[in-house]
Amino acid sequence: MTADISSLNCFTQLLTGARVTRVFAGPNTGSNLSIRLQLGSIIDEPERRLREHALTTAELALFIECTWRIGRSKSMLASSVEFSEITTSAYKGIGPLVGSAVSECTIRPPFFNLSVTFDTGLRLELFCDRMVSEDYSNYTIETFNATCEVGPGSLVVVTQKAPSVPALRIVTDG
């Protein structure tokens, strides 16, 4: 269903407080410029198999296909430009996200650019630059029962997952 900024706000509020448990980057995530953050508890293998079409093995995922950068107040650690030429320094720039918790998400209309601030002082900036493409979104936030996709042309689409998917058990470290 086509949605608006209030729906997108609901999804970004879910990210707030969640801790990054894994970061994936590069060609196997969708394209050389893509990164995927998994947030929250990791799901155990038997339960994960029930979700074969899911983007994530964690409670939440942020899948980024638009231009992005990661930095601190006065320095840049990594950007999507570096990932077009995958280097060790590019991967070192995304590594510090693991273990950090999202402290704030800010959406900037009219294009729905997203700024994600972490408790470690890092900031992930997303720049929605996809204009017309059926193959790529700008970014997608996925939960167990829904996805919120910010597509080309500032289109926000929320998709509910099939109700026949059984409830999943969360596995925690403790």
Polypeptide structure, described:
The strands form 2 sheets. This protein has a 7-stranded antiparallel sheet, with helices on one face. Strands 6-5-9-8-7 form a 5-stranded antiparallel sheet. By secondary structure, the protein is α+β, with helices and mostly antiparallel strands. It has helices at residues 5-15, 45-49, 80-83, 88-94, and strands spanning 2-3, 20-25, 35-42, 58-64, 67-71, 76-79, 102-108, 113-118, 123-127, 139-142, 146-151, 155-160. A hairpin with a 4-residue loop joins β5 and β6.
**Basic shape:** globular
Mean pLDDT: 75
Estimate what percentage of residues fall within beta strands.
35-45%
- Derived structural class: alpha+beta
Q: Outline the biggest β-sheet.
A: 7 strands, antiparallel
Task: Give the CA-CA distance, first to last residue.
Answer: 38 Å
Work out the helicity level: 10-25%
Topology order in helix (H) and strand (E) letters: EHEEHEEEHHEEEEEE
Radius of gyration over alpha carbons? 16 Å
Using DSSP, what is the number of strands?
A: 12
Strand order of the largest sheet: 1-12-11-10-4-3-2
Number of domains: 1
The total count of helices amounts to 4
Low-confidence segments, ≥5 residues, pLDDT <50? 45-55, 164-174
